[in-house]
Each structure stands twice: as C-alpha cells, then as structure tokens.
Amino acid sequence: MSELSRTPQVPADAPSRDTAPHYLVETRGLTKHFVAQRGAFGPKRQLQALTDVSLGLRRGETLGLVGESGCGKSTFGRTLLRLLEPTRGQVFFDGVEVTALPERELRALRRKIQVIFQDPYSSLDPRMTVTELVGEPLRIHHLVTNREHERERVVELLKRVGLSADLLGRYPHEFSGGQRQRIGIARALAVEPEFIVCDEPISALDVSIQAQVVNLLLDLRESSQLTYLFISHDLEVVRYLCHRVAVLYLGRLVEVGPVAAVTETPRHPYSYALQGSVPLPDPTRTRKRLVLEGDVPSPLDPPSGCPFHPRCPRVIHGLCDRVLPALTPVAGTPEQLVACHSPMVD
Q1: Strand 25-37 and strand 88-93: pairing?
Q2: Which of 204, 209, 203 is nearest to 234 (CA)?
Q3: Of 23, 112, 313, 344, which residue has the fewest beta carbons closer than 10 angstroms?
Q4: SS3 62
Q5: Alpha carbons 36 and 149: distance in angstroms, whole number
Q6: What pLDDT, on the 0 to 100 scale, is given for residue 192?
Q7: What is the pLDDT of residue 63?
C-alpha cells in the first residue's frame, strides 16, 4: 500500500463540536443474536454476534470499523442494511427509522443505501454480462427509459470506475479480481446512493491493486459527496481513508474516535494491541507492543463484565470481570470514547 499518502480531511459541512450533530446514518443499541443449536435435538443457545452498538455517521464522512475476524463487523454492516433483521435496536437514515419500514418503503430507500461486498468472485452473477450486472439496478429503480439509455448509463459508470466500454459484453470470469471489484463499485454507484457500506472491499485483492481501489473509493467520495462505512482489518488503510474509527471486540464497541486519536494514542488495551500489530515500513524503527494471550472467547458464552478482561494485561479483578464498562469520553479528547475501567495512558 505504498501509494497511500493522502490524509483524509473532515468534511466541510460536518457540524462543529458545539452543535448537536445531525447524522445521516445512526444506530441505537443495535443488537443481532443468532440461534445456535448443537445437533438436531440439542439445546438452543444464543450466539451474541452484536450487542448494543450505537454509532452515527455524518454526511460526507467515512467511519472505519475494525477488529479481529469474528468480532461482528460484517454482521453490523448487514444488519444496518437490513439484510439481516436486528434482534433489537434501531437504525435511522436521514431521520427515518429503517428498522420500522415495511418492505415496499424499504425497497425505495435502498436506492440511497448500497453495499460493496468483500468477495468480487462471488458477489457477481456469473451468468450475467457487465451490461446486465450494472444495468439491473437502473431497471429495477426505473432510472432508464430504454435499452439504449441503459447502455449509455452503463458506459458512463464504467468510465467512472476506470473501465473501458469495450467490456460491456463480457462475463465476470473474464476479469481479474480488481476489475470485478470495480464492476461491483459501478453497480453500487448506478442508483446514485448517498451511503455505501464497504464490507472489506480490498481484502480479497492482490496487494498490488489494493491501493488503486482505495484511491478510487476516495476519489468517488470527494466527487459524489458519498458517506462510507468502511469495514476492514487493515489499520493503515483505515488511517488513510477514514475520518473516524470504531473498534469492535466480541460484538461490542470498545473505542470510538477521530482516526488520528485512536490509531496514534489508543486508550483501550485492545486498540493498543491492534495498533502494535501493524508492521512498520522502516525496520530500524520500533514501537511498544502489547502482546495478547489466549483466544477470543466464544460469542456463545461471552464472559461477564468487560468482554476483553480474560485477555487484558491491565485487568482489575473484582471490577473488570463483573462490571461492563460504558463508553466514556477521554480526558482532553472528548470526541474519543473508550469502554475501559483501566484505560491506557501516554
């Protein structure tokens, strides 16, 4: 990712600190639990994939969502989109409660909310040409009047993502991973959305083309005033692309704040450990690391109190293992919130 050098700027229309923010997208206590059953006649248990997640995204902002595999990142994105129905909690889009909408109204709203999936190899129908793949949402939402109009719009969308019009009649198997992801991006842009969930859009791509896709997303955000939820496990990409970052652990938020604050001065021990795991490009440089011991607990049987306490080197016995910490502002950095009884200090 050597091409990544730009620093994201806070959107010009973002509310000031002394005004109540108006969020384009907001979740309140969003929770998703799955029913897990061991064997045909075994007892049913709750797999707690996501619990009480409250986040807000301002218009034009990019929020990074990070954490280990299995922490609930993709579940959050899919529940936010109502591809999965929440167990409880609310999702709002521009003041409208998405979780309360009937199917017909939700379908109309989907024009404003799109998704770019992680795997460009499975997210495109192998039986459809590029024209059909990118043109399908245009037809569904009645944004084109005839086939010729549809073809013109598809050509325009392909040019926006750096692809040639000569590719219109080809099928997904004829493209590289990077080209397929660009087709997926063009498909998401077809209905002119305001908000896009990017579910690890570069993790399945070769390193040599990851920077190209990230820069494409950045250029599209700036030219179309898009709002992104960027789900990733790559902190360096998040630092480059995002304005704020939220850290998930075992389905719960443990830290939220401006990307510079969370990546440079993380307060939660888990965030600190994640940042310490990022390799430095200069082999002569060193950084303090926090090595975690043990495995992530099972979401079928999460620990009491703080979910991180079984692996935390700063655990306070009798407190962390009994009391769930709330997200509270960090002294001196009110926009940075941490859920920890014993936060890291400088």
Answers
A1: antiparallel
A2: 203
A3: 313
A4: strand
A5: 48
A6: 93
A7: 97
Neighbouring C-beta atoms of residue 297, cutoff 10 Å? 16
**Least confident stretch, 58-67, 69-78, 133-142, 271-280:** 271-280
Question: Whose CA is closest to 244, among 226, 258, 228?
Answer: 258
Tell how far CA 239 is from the center of its chain. 13
**pLDDT tens, 178-198?**
999 999 999 999 999 999 999
Helices (H), 254-320: 259-264, 269-276
pLDDT range class, residue 283, cuts 50, 70, 90? low
The amino acid at residue 318 is G
How much is the pLDDT for 72? 93
Cβ neighbourhood burial of 242 (10 Å; 0-12, 13-18, 19+): buried
- Which residue is listed with tokens 């993790």? 203
CA distance 306 to 339: 8
Question: Minimal CA–CA distance to 327: which of 129, 73, 56, 93?
Answer: 56
pLDDT-derived band at 174, boundaries 50, 70, 90: very high
Cβ neighbours, 10 Å, residue 346: 5
Strand order in the sheet with 195-199: 113-116, 195-199, 227-231, 62-66, 244-249, 252-258, 333-338, 328-330
The pair of three-digit structure tokens given for residue 178, joined into one six-digit string: 């990077």
Q: What mean pLDDT, rounded, does the chain reach? A: 88
User: Which stretch of DSSP H or E encloses residue 215?
Assistant: helix 207-224
Percent of the chain as helix, strand, coil, to the nearest 5: 30, 20, 50
